[in-house]
Amino acid sequence: MDVVMDYPTSSLLPKKETGAATFVNRYPEYDGRGTVIAIFDSGVDPGAGGLQVTSDGKPKLIGRYDCSGAGDVDTSAVQQSVDGELQGLTGRKLKVPPTWKNPTGNYYLGMKSAFELYPKKVQERLIKERKEKLWDPEHKTALANATRNLNAINKEQEANKSSTISREEKLKKDEAEAQVEVLNSFEKKYNDVGPVHDCVVFHDGEMWRACLDTSEKGDLASCQVLGEYSKTRDFVSLSASDQVNYSINVHDEGKLLEIVSLCSTHGTHVASIAAANFPDAPEKNGVAPGAQLVSLCIGDIRLDTMETGTAMVRSMIHVMNSAIENGYKIDIINMSYGEQSHFSGSGRCGELMSEVVDKYGVVWITAAGNNGPALCTVSTPPDISVSSIIGVGAYVSPDMMEAEYSLRKKQPGMPFTWSSRGPTKDGDKGVTICAPGAAITSVSCFTLRGSQLLNGTSMASPHAAGCVALLLSGMKAQGLPYSPFSVKRALENTALFVDSMDVFAQGYGLLQVEKAFENLVHYHNTPDRDVRFHISCGPGNHKGIHIRNGVQDVPKEYTVTVEPFFADADNVEPEKKIEFQMSLVLMCSASWVEHPSNLEIMNIARVISIRVDPRGLTPGVHNTCVRAYDVNKPERGPVFRVEVTVVQPHVLDSPQPELVCNGVHFDPNTIQRHFILVPDRVSWAVINLRGLERENFGRFVIHCVQLRPKRSCKTIEFHKMVNVSAQSNTVFSFQVKGGVVLEVVIAKYWANLGRISLNYSVELHGCRPDSPAVTMLHADGIHEIELHSGLQSEEVSPIIQIKSSVSVLRPTEAKVLALDKRDVIPPGRQIYQLLLTYTFHLSKSFDVTPNSSLLSHLLYESEFESQLWMLFDCNKQLLASGDAYHHKYNVKLEKGDYTIRHQIRHEKKDLLEKLTDLPILLSHKLATPITVDAYGSQSQALIGGKKLTSAILPTGKHTLPIYIAPLPSDKLQKIGTTGHYLQGTIVYSKDDIGKKVDSYPFKYILVEPGKKSSSKNNNEKTKQEEYEEALRDLQVSWLSKLDNSEAAEQLYKELCTQYPDHLAVHTAMLAHLEPDTGREWPGSAKPLNPTQLTRLQTVAQAVISSVDTVELLVHFGTKSDQRPDASKIKQTMDRQKTALIDALARYGSVQCRLFKSTLESDVSKPTLEDIDKTYLELMRFSDNNDKVTGQFVVWHACVHQHYGRMLKVLTKLAEEKPSKDLEEATVWAMKQLGWQHSADLLSSTAPARYPPAYRPF
């Protein structure tokens, strides 16, 4: 067999489809050279293939910036080296190489966890590698040894079971069991938060430089010193195994280090498509190999690569400042990012995007989105308040199918099934053009592969950006003027419109480079070259005409305003504005649209009227546009367009509404759209599909969307990828809203070859509640809901479940601060931040979701440019981050104290000051949902009688009342949280299919629990007695807080004299001598001296001798005390027991420390017998290893060299409240046992878990 060796390499990164390859062959000098493309993405890897030099030998990647703030390091701590060493923030000694030049001698220090710089997949890979290499071998050996030791002890004690086990033998077994238990616990709770690197920044007299201590030993000579990337092109990987390349920038005179890493490989792939250059393999080149690149990372690694307003605004500021600060103008922005927004008519980010295009002359190109195939699924951007951004859809050609996807058979070129479709919700085109949406090209080095196939409109956008770089390269080489507006018009007017392709996916057609270039060259001097025509339609000032609000049976007239806007209008000569005038001819090919024939336009808004007569339009979608041609040069294409889209829905008015389609043929990428006006009285729908050919099955996308005003297309959406065959019915259900047009799309996936025929149907069901969202107030008692009958008889079985409790957090601190120079919009618009701090405590483990509800679900459309929250534990370790889309960010938290820091940004300080009391909602997921009871009558609800389990709601105008009873106290106690309200869902349908989808939000407002009044004694105290008691308690409370030891001793003496029997005096003195936050643990680097220890012992002894332990044991051994003053006696005994336990624990821990220390001759040293005696006495009253007794139990295990028991207690204490002191003691105990692997893990990662300050935004 002959092997065909002609491999279609050129189609791996397609360029033929748009004519880019032909253009570069024809004009080799116009290959993008002289242009700069900014990549707004997840970061570009300078080590990836093809991203080193341009085709004319210049540096390819000339700037790298992390605009998200995720790579920021606070380096405000300044030191001078002492004997060539610095004290790193991790605690390590850093040795400064003598070769470093630092004229000032100042070193700016910070620290950064490596995992904060790693993409998620790299982090997962390294955790696995580190565990297999550094943990598993030693840990398995330690566990095996500990298990053998325990088995030997058990065997020995089994042999001697006839004799009584001594206390020493029991402790020996307890120690062996503890070691096995602790080792198993360590394995189960293994948590590698990664290494932490000290960061050193200094100025060498010429530039700022930085070094990360990747040795983790302070050996800076073995680490790479980097200069700022824009000046040096320096970059290096954090380690040989991770291959994550990073570079640095320095801000604020050395006080802020910006480490530029990568949050995914997406941006590298995008950059490679646009402009990769392989000198030795030109067939692998990107579209514009001569273009230079600037990487502006807008993806935040803290949010799993989600873009933030902060990152986008900083990126735009960089674009605005680039010509002045960096010496090069950014010509093109490629942004393969975007989200679904609720509306596009306003929004802080959109306003700045428009400014970048209008004022700074940048061509902005963006991905249209991957949310198709339903209509109106275009992302933001390009859908912003103006039509100046080029939105690109994704196209796949026959050659791409063969070379990239290895399909058995080529198909005609087509849009990808998932590519987002226009129009925008406000009627604009949405998708401007389409371009190849897949490529096999370079990816980041950390993937450990050289190239990869990725697809999406994310890949189509950089292809278009590369094509525009070719156009601008040619225009610059010929010295011809252009503007973003003339470039966009040229692309629109020269694109290849393919009749067989979906008009809403291809926009104006497939991009054609050569024709666009000819258009730009020939018409470079037209009067509208630097003019954008803004279209405003109707009272909503929409960007087009979009009619989709029911049956269209009446003509509609729209007032359309056309207003010219000049590029960089503030700097345009008045004469140019005065001279601007054009005579335009208006044309439209649709007979159902009427419009004026002519429009004379000048530098003023002109108003025209367009009449749309949808009568006679068949059910479906109808699209056209009114085109405006320059009468002097009509051949160059429309100057502007007014898009018109009309949706004429099916009306299902039968008693059983159903749309049925039989025998419909589907080839690859065949799309069937149906628009249905959903009747008011239904609430859910069912789609049923079945194939007709037994031997075939088809891969289908089912996409159903209902649009609501000022709401994203995802608000009411169903999207599913399914396999359909003749073997069985494929059935899906989804919720619908009555009175709103529903689009139902059945699309055969583009890569699913062959033809298949289907029968499918859409059925409508359900009944309508009088209110879709139910809010019930506990104090209101019984809550009534009314269900209204649907078009069919429905069986109703209401189920109400509470799934979470929500607390309202108020800020404990609020600050409005000016940000640094990175956050100043030219020429001098300072951006401010509002920094809010919230604290909360969890009494047990919960899954929680913070939600800044005022700003939720608002990013591009928000009037504030950014919001970001970070959640920290009590040791300042970052646990989670989140932004506007709170539903994405759920975090499991253990019992403890937590802090949320919340940042909101805007350039208007007064707007931020209005939000200084902004609450945050904290949702706690309940372990088990709570059911709220529903009844069929108010009387049954009142007495908790027979519940409503089933009822028939017949057709017609019938109403079924449902009565919801308030939650009883036992269920409220079961929830066990002090939330402000509860939330869950309510479902009405009994149908198994319907109840899965037809649910509604249910909110239950709690009332503040009543405060129980304390019972007063029969013999009430006089005011004088109350005063004296309050004064005493105040003095006692301050005794533990005093810093001055002499003052504390003096106060202690006075209180002992005045209140000799008041145990709280001694307890407070013990807390002063050794506060909870300053307790000494084994292995401490700063032990208490013998004098302090003996003083602690003396005060503890005063408590012990004051308590009658026999009387105490008798009291707590009494089952029932019937004495009249039993309550008062119990309070006294409880206080005595608490004080005694604290005193015994402190006394015993002092004994242990005296036993372990080297003492002067005049201090008696306790014996192990003395220590055991105190321990056994303590165990008579408490066996809890809590924070009160835990210190002594740890020391007791330590002096017996029972380090397993010691670790067991330390682990439990750390679970209650982790601290650095506890961890240091844990590491010390691990080392005593020879468990170096676990000690190393904790030691190396401790700086990440106990950082000195909160992580910066």
What does this structure look like?
The chain is of the alpha+beta class and 1257 residues long. Among the domains are: 15-70 and 262-523, Rossmann fold; 658-765, Jelly Rolls, CATH 2.60.120; 774-804 and 927-1005, Sandwich (Immunoglobulin-like), CATH 2.60.40; 811-918, no CATH class; 1052-1217, Alpha Horseshoe (Serine Threonine Protein Phosphatase 5, Tetratricopeptide repeat). It is 28% helix and 28% strand. It is built from 28 helices and 60 strands. Strands 1, 2, 14, 17, 18, 19, 20 and 21 form an 8-stranded mixed beta sheet that branches. Strands 43, 45, 50, 53, 55, 57, 59 and 60 form an 8-stranded mixed beta sheet that branches. α6 (309-325) packs parallel to α7 and α21 packs antiparallel against α23. The longest helix has 40 residues, at 120-159. The chain is globular, with a radius of gyration of 37 Å. The mean pLDDT is 93.
